[in-house]
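Record filed here:
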Amino acid sequence: MYRIIGADGKPYGPITTEQLRRWIQEGRANAQTMALAEGATEWKPLSDYPEFEFASQAPIGGPPTLAPLPSADSTAAARVNGPAIGLMILGGLSLLSSLAGTVMRLSGWGPGSLFGKQNPDFDKLMQQFSSGTTGLAISMIGVIIAAFILYGGIKMRKLESYGLCMTASVLAILPCFSFCCLIGIPLGIWAMVVLSKPEIKAAFH
């Protein structure tokens, strides 16, 4: 991975060796472009790096006068924007749903009240889940998880806390932990696929 100084004097990166080679071929960087390899502390011209070949190249002056190079961070931000917003919406809806469920259980109008009289054992089981300590605990767990998914979407959009964002994506996939499994499963998978790409992971702070 490398960082380079663009024609506008600003640093760009990190970018991979292959991507930097493409920029050289496209004329967006040359032998005089200053670069900093990952783990190094000294900026050097690209001509000093043996992995980049500049056959008979004797450029005059500084870097080519071109439009500013796109930063890897801005590219990564654009790619995570979609799934990040999706997680935020999913988390927000799940949070509202869980809070509503908590209020219903506290008022005695939990899910069990939606069913007619069944057999006594079933009624007792539904009563436990619709009200009382068990029902309230389930609602509170839902609130916490929904808030976590929402927060994970916010952090993902900012390219912060990679592990937290990946955890939020996994929670979105798990059934009963999000507002709608039909939405949460594909959305969580989408977020995980994007986050698993090396260039995206490298852009996180």
